Amino acid sequence: MAILMKSFSYVPKGQFHPTVLNAGEKCPKEYEEIARKWGCFTPDADGADAAKAELEAAKAKAEVVSMELDAVKAELGAVKAELEAAKEEAETTKAELEAVKAELEAAKTAGKDGGKK
Question: CA separation (Å) from 9 to 3, 44, 91?
Answer without folding.
Answer: 14, 22, 79
